[in-house]
Amino acid sequence: MRIVFMGTPEFAVPSLEALLKSDDRVVGIVTQPDRPKGRGQRLAPSPVKVIAQREQIPLLQPSKMKDPGFMSELSGWKPDVIAVAAFGRILPPAILSLPPRGCINVHGSLLPKYRGAGPIQWALINGETETGITTMLMDEGMDTGAMLQQATMAIRADDTAGSLSSRLADVGGRLLVDTLAQLKAGTLAPRPQDHSQATLAPLLKKEDGVIDWTMPAISIANRIRGLTPWPGAYTFFKRDRWTISRATAMDETTTLAPGQITALTKDAIRVATGSRVLAIHELQPANSRRMPAAQYLAGHPLQTGMQLSQSEDV
Length: 314
Fold this sequence. Notes:
By secondary structure, this protein is an alpha+beta fold. The mean pLDDT is 96. Helix 1 packs parallel to helix 6 and helix 5 runs antiparallel to helix 7. The strands form three sheets. It has a seven-stranded mixed beta sheet with strand order 5-2-1-6-7-8-9, with helices on both faces. Strands 10, 11, 12, 13, 14, 15 and 16 form a seven-stranded antiparallel beta sheet that branches. It has two domains: 196 residues, 3-Layer(aba) Sandwich (Rossmann fold); 104 residues, Formyl transferase, C-terminal domain (Methionyl-tRNA Fmet Formyltransferase, Chain A, domain 2, Roll), CATH 3.10.25. The radius of gyration is 22 Å and the shape is elongated. The protein is built from eight helices and 16 strands.
């Protein structure tokens, strides 16, 4: 088959790489325009663009999906199917109806749960113990199309959005190739989703990272996992912003108020929450690098009773 691939971030790379090794032909790639990155804010290509350039595959980076010039070039590739993985844009009806075999999406959840742009993050935030990949036929809704295949994966206790995304991306690549092979063979029947079981996983914003210490310790720990590496879970100690990258909920109670430091150990800063205690193991102070709590404590004489807060004004 003639395949057009649409994808942007690192999550999409294994799917593209798997297609390039398959029996089908990737005739073109679509990714988002280059974005400013790093402290210098220089324009940087997406991970998918890097692969396209390496393999010398025709590439399009439309700023608008309905641009006539883009639509003309896309049609000229004559795709039998369009494969999509974390592209980051909504496809208009003209694209959805273009390939004879449809547009197939690689989605990072067990649909109909966690429809939307942040399925991996929200599964962790909500304390799920398993998730997976769904391949589906795209329609005009937000991840509402008929399902083709699913693969289940256990969520590890120490998983972050970064580690879980990496494992799911690899599974997604394998499942996509198998889905296409079964579609060609006529051995795959699309299954409609049970919309009554749907849950949403909206795109996260930087302000979603602020830690509310009145929440239970387990909820805060899960939120940290789901927000690592982006947008990052953070709190304030006086005027210093800490981004917390690893923490565990302790089976320990305290009479101190939420956000107050309860104890300082050789490997953690323990903090009171709305229910039980959270142990901070790794953090990144503002304008510094990520470090173990012990390393931070070596240069910062904290004391029990000191307050962490949601704002630097405290």
